[in-house]
Amino acid sequence: MTNVYSFDGILVFGLLFICTCAYLKKVPRINSWLLSEKKGVWGVFYKAAIIGTRLHIAVAISCMVMAFYIVFLK
């Protein structure tokens, strides 16, 4: 189990947040509701979705590396 208050827990949370927002960007109803704001608190979801879609290869590699680290090294 990864603790959220450790550095690797923050990395896991960030990667899962980016992947979730990028996935939700593909759903039309949620895209218009959740990701329509580009500024403010709700803009964090939009920015995470943009990071997830533009850097999808880097995010996928980071997820695989983090999964390997958690399963085998921690």
From TrEMBL:
Top-rank taxon, per record: Eukaryota
Compartment(s): Golgi apparatus membrane
Membrane topology: Single-pass type I membrane protein
Transmembrane portions of the chain: 6-24, 44-72
Entry keywords, A to Z: Golgi apparatus, Membrane, Signal, Transmembrane, Transmembrane helix
Pfam families (alphabetical): DUF1242 (PF06842)
Cellular component GO terms held in the UniProt record: Golgi membrane
Role this protein plays: Involved in the early part of the secretory pathway.
Family: Belongs to the KISH family.
Name used for this protein in its record: Protein kish
Organism, as annotated: Menidia menidia (Atlantic silverside)
